[in-house]
């Protein structure tokens, strides 16, 4: 009886590991989507309304959800009181401190936007945001493909691995 309970727990644990990997793939897609929504609002604020950067970042926070909203909130709060620190450093800190589920390529793409925001005219900032949005769209398409393709594999491998280990131990 104890062996059966142990086997069931082993299968459940391995299945949980597989589902956790699927969850990370879903989280990346969700964060990329929300970052793109926030950046689109940021682009509108900077390009059409010529809103100051802290207010534009607050508007981007309102358009995003989850971890992306937390990232825009962090940047908006820090941009309001720069105190001699360059904005690109605050942008990079936001990417590091907020729990965004991004790959290294995603982070590099977003880090390239930091030096442009708040430094140049509205058109230049809009062009940089457009470039970042295009890159995020490519990364999001790739992440969705990975989620579709690898999500099933991770789920099946978790349960199958658990069954295999349970059979070995029984």
**Helix- and strand-based class?**
mainly alpha
Helix percent band: over 70%
| Overall geometric form | elongated
Uncertain stretches of 5 or more adjacent residues? none
Output the radius of gyration.
21 Å
Q: How many DSSP-defined strands?
A: 0
Average of pLDDT? 90
Q: Strand count, sense and closure of the main sheet?
A: none
Beta-strand share of residues = under 5%
SSE ordering: HHHHHH
Number of helical segments with 4 or more residues: 6
Q: What is the CA–CA distance across the termini?
A: 11 Å
Topology:
Layout: H1 2-49, H2 53-63, H3 66-80, H4 87-97, H5 104-111, H6 122-169
Helix pairs in contact: 1-2, 1-3, 1-6, 2-3, 3-4, 5-6
